[in-house]
């Protein structure tokens, strides 16, 4: 009996050892596949950028154009955060990496804390000579999303929602949109700015009026190419919202931070239906005008408009 127990324990040890090795092998294989996809995305960005040669260099940009690129010196990471593309969770991770939060539970960190001003150093504060050293030697990460999906997410979150953040945007932006683009608005709408339609929002974006320049260029709907300059900065980690978990695991592994677990977010269902519901409120000429604002995002990050108009407008 003692011999049987010993053999059984030995069997369990061998079994779990083999299983563990298999899991490690699977994880390594998954990371290799994700890295292959990452490299392909880098190539596509460079290829697209060659078709749109820029007249400006990075040194020509005003410092304010580099404020979205956050710096983590210890892990040699530059991360360009894009609102509505998982930036809250990645800011939380940067707080953990910098020792600004005890523990590794990402979702335990209040979102308001992660977004608080002055929480992170950004590239705009770095002297030019040091900046170039970082650009040459640090990992450079960006996570992107279908431009119109991101835009719709911003609209629903900031102008349709009932959170404190939404109320702030409705008061600061919504009231002005209604005043400018709605015929015979009610006093309630003018007072609260809580019922901006998607079409009114798109008219506000596409008209680019000087009177609203301060809010038209808000980071939540500003093109990613304007926030992160992918044709001037060669990003070495290119994630997409559609493959967020795999891309985040690769990034954490790359900067030796695999001990942090990226949150597994509930899958957003009905994205295609939501896009159809809102964009069906727009006529094709207005969609074309909107596309022009995000044309470079679509081309540089290899997205198309098939799920909205049935074909690409490129």
Counted up, domains total 2
Strand order of the largest sheet: 1-2-3-4
Summarize the main sheet. Answer: 4 strands, mixed
Our estimate of the beta-strand percent is 5-15%
Which word captures the global form? Answer: globular
User: How many individual helices?
Assistant: 15
Average pLDDT rating: 89
* Unreliable parts: 8-23
What is the N-to-C succession of helices and strands?
A: HEEHHHEHHHHHHEHHHHH
> How many strand elements?
4
Descriptive account of the structure:
The protein is mostly helical. It has two domains: 22-147 and 221-255, no CATH class; 149-213 and 272-309, no CATH class. Helix content is 55%, strand content 6%. The protein has helices at 2-51, 87-97, 111-114, 128-137, 147-160, 164-181, 187-192, 198-207, 213-216, 224-228, 244-254, 271-279, 284-293, 295-300, 306-309; strands at 69-72, 77-80, 139-144, 237-240. It has a four-stranded mixed sheet, with helices on both faces. A hairpin with a 4-residue loop joins β1 (69-72) and β2 (77-80). The chain starts with a helix and ends in a 5-residue tail after the last helix.
């Amino acid at each position: 009996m003692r011999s049987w127990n010993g053999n059984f324990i030995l069997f369990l040890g061998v079994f779990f050892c083999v299983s563990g090795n298999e899991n490690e092998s699977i994880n390594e294989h998954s990371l290799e596949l994700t890295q292959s996809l990452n490299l392909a995305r880098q190539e596509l960005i460079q290829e697209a950028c060659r078709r749109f040669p820029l007249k400006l260099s990075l040194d020509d940009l005003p410092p304010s154009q580099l404020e979205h690129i956050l710096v983590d010196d210890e892990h040699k990471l530059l991360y360009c955060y894009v609102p509505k593309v998982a930036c809250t969770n990645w800011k939380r991770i940067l707080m953990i990496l910098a020792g600004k939060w005890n523990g590794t539970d990402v979702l335990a960190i209040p979102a308001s804390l992660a977004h608080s001003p002055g929480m992170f150093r950004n590239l705009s504060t770095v002297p030019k000579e040091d900046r170039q050293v970082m650009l040459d030697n640090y990992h450079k990460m960006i996570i992107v999303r279908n431009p119109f999906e991101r835009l719709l997410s911003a609209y629903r979150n900031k102008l349709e929602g009932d959170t404190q953040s939404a109320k702030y945007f409705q008061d600061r932006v919504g009231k002005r949109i209604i005043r400018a683009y709605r015929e015979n608005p009610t006093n309630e709408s003018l007072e609260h700015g809580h019922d901006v339609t998607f079409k009114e929002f798109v008219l506000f974006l596409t008209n680019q009026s000087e009177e609203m320049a301060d809010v038209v260029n808000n980071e939540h709907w500003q093109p990613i190419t304007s926030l992160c300059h992918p044709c001037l900065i060669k990003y070495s980690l290119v994630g997409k919202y559609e493959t967020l978990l795999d891309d985040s695991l690769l990034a954490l592994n790359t900067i030796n931070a695999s001990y942090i677990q990226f949150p597994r977010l509930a899958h957003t269902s009905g994205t295609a239906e939501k896009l159809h519901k809102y964009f069906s409120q727009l006529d094709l000429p207005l969609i074309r005008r909107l596309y022009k604002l995000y044309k470079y995002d679509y081309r540089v990050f290899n997205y198309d408009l098939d799920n909205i108009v049935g074909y690409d407008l490129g």
